[in-house]
Fold each of these.
Amino acid sequence: MAGSTGKNSSDEGWRDRLRRYRLSHNIKQSALAEDLGVTQAMVSRWEAGLVDPSPVMQARIRVLLALEPAIPLVDWRRQVALEPGLAAVIDPVGQIETVSQGLARLLARPAAEIEGQYVDEAFSGDLPQLYRRLKNAGFFDEAVETVESADKYCFVDKNGHVVSHCVQGLHWPHRGEDGEIRWMLTGARVTQAEFAHLRRSQSGQIELIFAE
């Protein structure tokens, strides 16, 4: 038997840990499966919460993903800033506090030029709408555990052209040093076809998982 059911899991973090790792490092399920020596279907079942990895596989995943020990609070912003994938830390009023190397590269701007802007200043289209939906759903009051999204990142590049990228996102609240909740944004670029499939499977832009 590959693992226990998600409902009886002794470690309910595997689903989100795997997704966060993949999205922040821009890794497909098939590539992660190859690294772990399992099928893509098995990774998909783990991420869907249908089964947990076996104890042996959990140990292998911990080594690969460097999940333990946990990142100390003092280092979490630095970790986000160094991410090669799309990631950001956004405060409750929508101000972008920290930008990853990957997101800065996508926007073709230094991180220092993006940090301090508000979401609706740096982007148009889906991301400002996503911020408003999260705020209205109680995301910054810890009413929401995680959010999956399919978004178009629209912005004006350094040459003045409007560009857009299809992105699969995974988001969760994180309590900052001052006790306030921050929006931890992570994402990975997807094709137009993958974007359309995500929108259909989620019945729209986002899928909210509320805290119990």
Amino acid sequence: MLYIQQSLNPNEEIIKVGHFHWWYTFNAMMWLVIGAAMMIGILYAAYYWEVMQFVKSNYPNVPDNLYDRAWNEAVEQKGGFMNVFLSSHIAVKLSAFAVFVVCVLIFAQKMVIKSTTEICLTTERLVLKRGVIARHIEEISVDRIEGVDVFQGILGRILGFGRINVRGMGVGEIDLPLIAQPVDFKKAIDRSRSMRRSGNNF
């Protein structure tokens, strides 16, 4: 919470810090799994096609009961399983690599967003800060908060994550990303509003 700590006003205190739920990280990591699976799938499709064409051209009209044997012999004649992979067309290799790289970049983008986002409720305001070099900061004074909505699906209710929309009076709204325990964060906002209206301190 480097930005929040640096921007605190005198007598302003941090009440609640929002944290990304582990489900966000899981979703980000799934892009690595998807990328690896797609890359392997493309390479295997190329391998299957090449061996199948070899079997058709060298063992025409092979009986079904001998097809597996013909397939194995075709792989052996082409230098083995790995050699078939390595001898694939350069376009196939580049396509498989490009798909994997795109998925890695999506994963990296999501993790950068997670590591550079700060969500904080203080005694005076709600702050959502994104980015490091190019910063995007959204703030709403606690006094100007008009309503808070929590959005949780079935899985969110079970695992304890969700999104929060905070509406301000005449100052727009802030959509918080996928955070852990959104209901507790909403309660903290409601409690902060009540305390501000009553003039009490935390």
